[in-house]
Amino acid sequence: MLSLSELWFLLIAVLFVGFFFLEGFDFGVGMSTAIIGKTDRERRTLINSIGPFWDGNEVWLITAGGAMFAAFPHWYATLFSGFYLPLVVVLLALIGRGVAFEFRSKMRHERWRKTWDIIIVVSSALLPFLFGVVFATLMKGLPIDGQMQLRPGFLDIVNPYTVVGGLSVTLLCLVHGLLFASLRTVGDLRERALNTARKLMLPLAAILAVYAVMTYFMTDVFAVRGWALWIMVVLGAASLGLAAYFVRQKREAWAFGMTGAVIAIAFASVFIGLFPRVMVSSMGSAFDLTVYNAASGAYSLKVMTIVACTLLPFVLGYQIWSYYIFRKRLNDQHHLEY
Amino acid sequence: MDPIMLSRIQYALTTIFHFFFVPLSIGLVLLVAIMETLYVVKGKEVYKTMAKFWGKLFLINFAVGVVTGILQEFQFGMNWSEYSRFVGDVFGAPLAVEALLAFFMESTFIGLWIFGWDRLSKKVHLACIWLVFVGTFLSALWILAANSFMQHPVGFEINNGRAEMNDFFALITNGQLLVEFPHTIFGALMTGAFVVTGISAYKLMKKQDVEIFRKSFNIAIIIGLVSSLGVAFSGHFQAQYLVETQPMKMAASEGTWTTTEDPAPWTVVAAIDPDKQENSGEIKIPGLLSYLSYSKFSGSVKGMKELQAEYEQTYGPGDYIPPVRTTFWSFRIMIAAGGLMILLAVYGTFLALRRKLEGAGKWFMRLMVFAISLPFIANTSGWIMTEVGRQPWTVFGYMTTAAGVSPNVSAGQILFSTIAFTAAYTVLGIVMVYLFVREIKAGPYAVEKPEEHDESADPFGVDGGYSVVTK
Q1: In the prediction, which pLDDT does B469 show?
Q2: Could you tell me the sign of the dihedral formed by the alpha carbons of A28, B425, A108, A326, in that order?
């Protein structure tokens, strides 16, 4: 039987997986404005394709943060204070990106638009990269001392393993986003999005393979979780293969589903590999933060479980409804409300 | 500089900035929702135009409120990790509920509202904006539940050196929340109302789109009247609660060093000397403090010196007197701004009801434009009083601010982040005001030229490739 703290670990994992699946594509669309958006109209169409969704997608991250604070205060405190400088950059990027979507269309000066477009592209690339780096360090381990304090050096955060992790996530989001863009546009733009995604499939497979191998040698997750992770690797590889197949068939909905599956499998693997640890200490396993020693009291977890179980169906319901409302492709005749 | 001071400065700056936008969002979205309701009920296009125009301003403002809010959530873990460890169990829960219950609602339905004008039926579209309002309202409720716990901790017990929740219901029926929430919400509605009346007054003076701005003024001034009175009444209850639960904050906001006579007079102004612990040049109104504190003209109010002695007995040696001058003056600034708004709202409503707005004379209209600043002054000084007046506590009676700071983050890192956020916020603030002014100048009938002209737009042309077509 699942204990409440284990359940909350699962919920937070689901929130992060949901976040990367959803915000993953709007990061990708943000990046793709620089790659396939040739004219202002095209860039605007691309941004409009995620316009109604990106804000809601980001709330998955905010909820994951809030849930972490409430269910695992030590995890929240150690992680957020330990990753101080990367998080400052994450926050600046989230701030810039959020207002750029709203501000870019407010004036038609070329330099004004360019500036916000650059902010959208840079932040949309930087954010998945930084999240990738942070999640990679979680698996690799960090110098956490007996007081649960984390004082990482530069090399603890930035090293070949984490950089490859960051690049993997960025590229994965880009392909995922290109496929989303191809789903919601028509004509040239759709073709270009599909073509670019097709060309990126091989590099993506290569970097993910490299990252999986590095994970095998540089972390203990395969040793700890053994067959469970091997299953995930096989599933991930199969999904990626299917994504490549569907892209060639120009069936973008299926391809998008498959890249989404790759994202979900990748991040689920991180949490499976960590469990029951939430943060691995490189100073000895006695200092690991686990779902047991980092968790809130039983009462608090119980209340939150009731609240979450009551509210989540509604949240999922209206989010799905909003995707249903905006299911149509954006074409040239369409008035771009922004 | 030491990390505690820097973390406090960062918290103050980012919170004050965030709180410029949040109340305005809550107030504006209610007005937009009312205007769209009138459109749906009466079927007149003019109300739709109004809803869209004020909606544009709301969206610019909302965007800044949302992005600065994310920083607020992360900041607890980054700068105040010991605080987060100590209270995460209790304080984190309302934050998580806020995200689940309010943020998802706001963000999803705002998307549907912006992009759904021609995809949803009128009624469903209207429901979306109301749901956004409900979302902002719930968000305020839960964040204030968290804040109220810091002011007046309830519903928990200390286990293994951590505060652990043992009564969720106590947390959401916290007396502090019951007085703080109405006061803050009325303040937010008042902010939206005064911004809309101020802008409308400006447009009416210029005789631009008179019908739209007269209607906007009339709707907003009524909200302004109701909410400014609501602020005053709820503030009164809050003061009484304060005397009970945080007497030191009350004493500091009154500059009362020694326990007052009975009945207690209210000090209008005073020169405060915190070192000598005495005041000079006081102007007092007899009996008023007793009324503020107890709703009757009798009863004395405890002074800071006595309270300091009491606190030392309870909590051990230490300095329990908050920065007195800041607390004292922010309280007075808040009250002055609030009082002025009540007067303006009463007179404005009188004019609106008698349909004499245009003949009102320029002085009143000018005053209303100037009054746009009043709610922001009142909101900001109100929060400064509440948060500074609580010092040295972060969780009243349980954890000092100094104890809550992250031990593993260096002063250099906090200095860097403070500079980075301040720079980013300054740019945001400037851009936002600039966009606001632009939208206001362009007016409700501004429409962009069709996209076909877009690509060939000459950035070096007379209008910089941009032009506005007015009907």
Answers
A1: 33
A2: positive
The H or E element containing residue B268 is strand B266-273
Residue B176 token pair: 């502090």
CB-CB neighbors (< 8 A) of A74 in chain B: 85, 88
Is A303 exposed, middle or buried (CB count within 10 Å of its CB: 0-12, 13-18, 19+)?
buried
Q: Write down the ipTM of this complex.
A: 0.89
A311 contact residues in B (CB cutoff 8 A): 97, 100-101
Q: Which of A40, A81, A312 sits opposite B409 (nearest CB)?
A: A81
B64 three-state secondary structure: helix
DSSP element (H, E) containing A277 = strand A277-279
For the entire predicted model, the pTM comes to 0.90
Which of B164, B413, B455 lies nearest to residue A297, judging by beta carbons? B164
**What average pLDDT score do residues B366-372 get?**
93
Helix, strand, coil percentages for chain B (3-state, nearest 5): 70, 5, 20
Averaged pLDDT for residues B42-54: 93
CA distance B40 to B244: 48
Other residues' Cβ atoms within 10 Å of the Cβ of residue B96: 24
Scored b (16 or more CB within 10 A) or e, B214-224 reads bbbbbbbbbbb
pLDDT for B416-449, tens place per residue? 999 999 999 999 999 999 999 999 998 888 765 4
B395 vs A contacts (CB less than 8 Å): none
How far is residue B179's CA from residue B148's CA, in Å, rounded to a whole number? Answer: 10
